[in-house]
Design brief:
17 helices, 4-stranded antiparallel sheet, 522 residues, alpha/beta
Length: 522
């Protein structure tokens, strides 16, 4: 008698030691999605807020952004890789709560750690910043492989589970990015965002631990640490008077002048304002602005001016006082700075002062200007230690020239150090757009003192369709005791050399700049 072989039977047995679907310790699909979504979103929130937290100490430059993004991606890769390996060796039920709890504590303490380190041990700031990004980033990224391991109950659904959780994690990262950039940063201080996120993570760890009936004492300790860190953050050094959408802002009173105020943004002195005497100009570059404008236009005549960048609105106030009837339109991207101007720096209404401030990007503001409708355009916008690159290109400068009338004037504040490669490139770019260009600065910086090495700092560039009256400007500079010289023509062309023309397609401003350790804008 012949016996038929048994019919094949599909193997739906659980993989490895994973609990079957009816195991009370198993992780439901909704809980899995919430954990993956939340942890992925948290990683991106920490990354974006870390950029703002570090800006007062490292500057808001391409290098700082690249460093933070690189560390965040390293944390994600490390957490995903090690999390997967550990999940194959240890019951993931035991791992999720600690990952969330430790991450929450580190995230909540980050403002305190970074600001204290920047104050007392600046040399360690990069190390501490890297740790506060790597630790929570890696632990939160490890949550996804932990959850995936718990959800994989059958080889037949591997692709579905992995794909679904990967999609949920990506969506969480998108939501975290959008929520932070469009909502949280505009409404809350960065310290509050991180403390709140850390608290949520610790509470999440408490819920997961409660379900697994583990680590209740550890959760209590974590919550106590977060509370203590929150209280300590309130007295940590390096705090801001106000955290705006883009800056950590402070208004510092002048001990030598009762009505003097300095606006400090991300540790950089942006503006000095005398709230009672707008004709008083403290910073050298603003006195250079005044010297150029007072020379180019008849004394007291009102002007139609556009200002790219507002800050403390020092120069618009000066024009309003020195040239009654002047209409100044200001493009200032940060609404928080405008609020400070009104609440703490004595800015009156637009009708009373002739100053109209629009919250907008400077490049977009230029495009809205009527052709040939302005006597003066002033460039004084900065992001950290550098001018925003998209305001330095030949395309942006063509918009400036289009807005000026035939005798109009463009003056701009530039900052550079080292070989002054950025200023040379910007002068070359202006020379390709305007027929007449001049540069004002310290003699050693602008090539008029070959025996001295360049010092760097502020310089003012002037461009126009009409000739620049260099002798008259020099006389005005000397009268204001600026200590600067002016150069133009062949001397300036020789100083500029073969510097590149900056374009929208290629404007490596951050690479051309060589930031100086002194954090001033004077």
């Amino acid at each position: 008698m012949t016996t038929s072989p048994p019919s094949p039977v599909a193997d739906d047995s659980p993989v490895g030691d994973d609990p079957p679907r009816d195991d009370p310790r198993g992780l439901g699909s909704r809980a899995a999605a919430v954990l993956v979504f939340g942890s992925s979103a948290a990683v991106l929130v920490v990354e974006i807020v870390a950029l703002r937290l570090l800006a007062p100490y490292l500057g808001l430059t391409l290098e700082t952004s690249t460093m933070v993004i690189g560390i965040a991606l390293t944390a994600i890769a490390l957490g995903s890789w090690l999390g997967g390996r550990i999940a194959d060796q240890v019951d993931p039920h035991r791992l999720i709560a600690p990952a969330l709890g430790v991450s929450g504590v580190v995230v909540a303490l980050t403002p305190l750690l970074l600001r204290t380190t920047a104050q007392w041990s600046p040399a360690l700031l990069l190390l501490v910043a890297s740790a506060t990004l790597l630790v929570p980033g890696a632990l939160l990224s490890a949550v996804t492989p932990f959850v995936t391991k718990l959800r994989l109950t059958s080889l037949a659904e591997t692709g579905t589970v992995v794909g679904r959780l990967s999609g949920v994690g990506t969506f969480g990262a998108i939501v975290g990015t959008v929520l932070t950039g469009f909502v949280l940063v505009s409404r809350l201080p960065v310290s509050s965002i991180l403390i709140g996120l850390g608290t949520l993570l610790v509470l999440g760890a408490a819920v997961v631990g409660w379900r697994a009936r583990r680590r209740r004492r550890a959760t209590a300790v974590a919550l106590a640490t977060v509370v203590a860190g929150t209280l300590a953050t309130g007295v940590a050094p390096g705090g801001c008077d106000a955290e705006t959408r883009y800056h950590c802002a402070q208004v510092v009173a002048d001990p030598d002048r009762d009505s003097g105020r300095t606006l400090v943004l991300d540790g950089l002195r942006h503006s000095y304002v005398d709230v009672e005497d707008p004709a008083y100009l403290r910073f050298a570059y603003v006195r250079a602005f005044a010297s150029v404008v007072d020379t180019a236009f008849p004394e007291g005549d009102p002007l139609t001016a556009h200002h790219i960048g507002g800050g403390g609105l020092t120069f618009p106030r000066y024009l309003a006082a020195a040239r009654p009837g002047t209409r100044s339109l200001v493009s200032e991207i940060d609404p928080g700075v405008v609020r400070i101007d009104r609440d703490r720096l004595g800015l009156g209404t637009g009708a009373a002062t002739g100053i109209d401030v629009r919250v907008e990007d400077g490049r977009l503001g230029l495009r809205r200007l009527d052709a040939g409708g302005h006597d003066l355009v002033v460039g004084d916008a900065f992001g950290g230690v550098s001018a925003p690159w998209h305001l330095t290109t030949s395309q942006a400068l063509k918009d400036v020239r289009r807005a000026l009338d035939a005798d109009g004037l463009y003056v701009a504040n530039l900052i550079d150090h080292g070989e002054l490669a950025f200023v040379r490139a910007e002068v070359a770019t202006l020379a390709a757009t305007f027929p007449h260009v001049a540069l004002l600065g310290k003699p050693a910086d602008i090539g008029l003192d070959p025996t001295a090495s360049p010092v760097g700092g502020n310089m003012v560039v002037v461009a126009s369709g009409r000739p620049v009256d260099a002798p008259a400007i020099q006389e005005a500079l000397d009268a204001r005791d600026v200590g600067w010289k002016i150069t133009g023509g062949d001397d300036l062309a020789t100083w500029t050399g073969n510097a590149r023309v900056l374009t929208d397609d290629h404007a490596p401003v951050d690479q051309l700049l060589q930031p100086h350790p002194t954090r001033t804008a004077r």
